[in-house]
Amino acid sequence: MENVCKIDVLLNLFLCLISDRLFDCISPYLLPAKNGEEPTMQFLLEVVDILTNYVKKTFDRSTKVLDFHHPHQLLEGMEGFNLELSDQPESLEQILVDCRDTLKYGVRTGHPRFFNQLSSGLDIIGLAGEWLTSTANTNMFTYEIAPVFVLMEQLTLKKMREMIGWPGGEGDGLFSPGGAISNMYSVMIARYKYFPEVKTKGMSAAPRLVLFTSEHSHYSIKKAGAALGFGTENVILLSTDERYLKKKKKKPVNLGYVPLFVNATGGSTVYGAFDPINEIADICEKYNLWLHVDGAWGGGLLMSRKHRHKLNGIERANSVTWNPHKMMGVPLQCSAILVREKGILAGCNSMCAGYLFQPDKQYDVTYDTGDKAIQCGRHVDIFKFWLMWKAKGTIGFEQHIDKCLDLSQYLYNKIKNREGYVMVFDGPQHTNVCFWYIPPSLRGMPDGPERQEKLHRVAPKIKAMMMESGTTMVGYQPQGNKVNFFRMVVSNPAATQSDIDFLIDEIERLGHDL
Amino acid sequence: MENVCKIDVLLNLFLCLISDRLFDCISPYLLPAKNGEEPTMQFLLEVVDILTNYVKKTFDRSTKVLDFHHPHQLLEGMEGFNLELSDQPESLEQILVDCRDTLKYGVRTGHPRFFNQLSSGLDIIGLAGEWLTSTANTNMFTYEIAPVFVLMEQLTLKKMREMIGWPGGEGDGLFSPGGAISNMYSVMIARYKYFPEVKTKGMSAAPRLVLFTSEHSHYSIKKAGAALGFGTENVILLSTDERYLKKKKKKPVNLGYVPLFVNATGGSTVYGAFDPINEIADICEKYNLWLHVDGAWGGGLLMSRKHRHKLNGIERANSVTWNPHKMMGVPLQCSAILVREKGILAGCNSMCAGYLFQPDKQYDVTYDTGDKAIQCGRHVDIFKFWLMWKAKGTIGFEQHIDKCLDLSQYLYNKIKNREGYVMVFDGPQHTNVCFWYIPPSLRGMPDGPERQEKLHRVAPKIKAMMMESGTTMVGYQPQGNKVNFFRMVVSNPAATQSDIDFLIDEIERLGHDL
């Protein structure tokens, strides 16, 4: 307590000194306050104080993961937290209160007991990287306005391509706004590779093209099919051998359809399953199809000497999606599309707008990479990742990944023979562990539609209670003909065995009387 | 000097106290340092110190806008700044050095003399908002994990639709990763509106569709045409009446082409020109075409009672792109796609993946907006904008916009009759002022190919010298048959008349002897 008081006194003193000093030299421009009278550097440091307190609490297991409220409750205004915008400005004091309230009613995705998404955790180096990125406030459009970030992107992508196993790390790529867009890029460039005239003439210049992916793959392949003009009916969902693509695929050429593209998933969303890339690559080579590996979730395993074999064959892919913001704990967003053939990304997307990319600059304009993207301005997603890589080294990522997979194995071993649990599949490949919790009331019940229907409602009920008590969060979903089951994933570096134990205790506490 | 020392002492004391306190309660999880021995909250505060110093310098006119280096120089490693990644971790001390170097070799886009892009400036409230967003580290996928941000997005989009003039602010929309993607959304939903079967069957289910836009519009419409399967040849670039779309457009129905979509630009990239929306809307209504207004750059003028008339007719649009990260000074990225018809965004893009959007949650799942997007995870772009709107009020944005347009008028008045300047067009509509600087050596020369060729090289030369001296930055480009000219834009709230004067002096200083 004494320490806390001392800190407050010092903080105030410190803030005043800093803000006075700044006030002299930069006066009106820095200041967001009306009339420029307020010492706004003080404001910024007070925000930092709010944020560091939040970070501290995020890692404290005695705090809740969330303080749940329904939309109508937040919209009505919780304890004066008014979301409505107005014509008139608010005071800086009120803005600080707004910042506190925004965090208070949000979800602590870095909490050691937040297991709800593939992206979780709060890496401090990554966070520092994001703060710096925001402060630099530039975009990846040209070397001219983002020289350092453009080079970091190129070097990091090369390193990632080396880990994929493409000779010399050659190829191309960029960071895109998430795995869905990275997957969309893969379909676009595959189409450009085989039917470049579609760029100018549209889909009518190509035969009816078909994309293949597994029924367990991410829905973004289908979204890409819809958006890019293929149509979802021409995205063929191949059935899987329980978890991965079946080994034998029917020769996919008939009825005038032309197969173009196969997506192999390296770590599926629900099961964490890895399609057998080498076997799929054999088929793609035989029929001259583009092979994409969606490693949005599983790509991180390339960093682990122990687990990278699950992606064996990835070096045969034409393109790869890999999201460091998932398994590698990089703050959102950070997703890479990597391409084996150099130049094809530019060929596919460039429009050579002279007013945006001037060829007559004094530096080597091959570093102006903006025209390769479907975006114009592009957020700087590279720096936090680059900084984390610097701080951890490749071995740091490896340790993180190995630890998360060990924890999942711990969970799997703990519940596979435990009373009241049924596993959806045996032997996790990734950190995904999928299971049903069977409340005592259903344990003696014979299997059949009635029990299935009741079981279907168990996970949503437990999840709702979890959210209302705010103690932990874990995902659930149905899959095919399987009723709702829990999908546990671990990507948070803060999670330990005790948090896994806590989750299981909590499921049993909340689900026991259902 | 004395103050500075005191601050250092206090800062250190403060940091130690804070970090000790934190060290006790959160020990290994917070710590990015190897073995968890380092007080990493101190690290975070040291990063803040680097960032606040950078902010301070950004607004200081005695600092350079940039310290230019060629790619090969940075790649070789400037004074120990090594961009290469390694297997082994670096020390936290080295990470701090990396942060400093990253900023040192970057470009100060918030500097009062940075005029290079449509996005410039560094708003402190917006910056605080981004720092908080990074700390919250969530995504816009579901209400479940971003309750406050999802509601803020909905309320802010409604407010924007009200400003567009759609009755009751009704409609739909979302924030997307930049104006190019927002424009792409507009084409996608137009296609879905008229030919919904393209979603499932692909472009072969539709006739040959044509998109119209002006030759001065942003290249992203063409990019969207290529990506979505229309083909760039089916994106018809209409010629303009010097700056805007010609008033009479040929009836665009012949040869089996079906016109689908017209883009009217509200603030073009180079000229800042506003197409006559009402006249275009008449044509669209007559021929039943989708009307999109690309107000990425000009949309902010809706906030100004003085200037919003330039967008008259925008309320007749079916969709609007509006980037608060441009004219409104919101940090990158912040772009909205707004749609008049409710439900069409979801109709176009949703895939109803049960494993991602569970219908059986305890809250109103209509707030789970992820499936409307082509992205899966979506970065939180709303908070900084919402916070700025709270802090400034609508009138704060109005003042900012009016001030920027006044400054451009000041520049225009200053140079329109000045010796050595030729205006590309008279009477700016937006903050774009386009002009040739004619060095004394060319002033007496008769017009002709030789003079044009020499003039074409003037702007790049001046720009290169500007960058090398680091004093200011302004864009240039050719346009149609016009040789390279400067495009001056003002969106930085820190810019004043003295900075405009400086720019002109600098152009003359550097260009005088060319």
TrEMBL record, chains A, B:
Residues 1-19 form the signal peptide. Coiled coil: none annotated. One of its GO terms (biological process) is gamma-aminobutyric acid biosynthetic process. The modification N6-(pyridoxal phosphate)lysine is found at K326. GO terms for cellular component: cytoplasm; presynaptic active zone. Keywords: Decarboxylase, Lyase, Pyridoxal phosphate, Signal. GO terms for molecular function: glutamate decarboxylase activity; pyridoxal phosphate binding. Gene3D superfamilies: 3.90.1150.170, Type I PLP-dependent aspartate aminotransferase-like (Major domain). Pfam families: Pyridoxal_deC (PF00282). Its cofactor is pyridoxal 5'-phosphate. Belongs to the group II decarboxylase family. This is Glutamate decarboxylase 1-like.
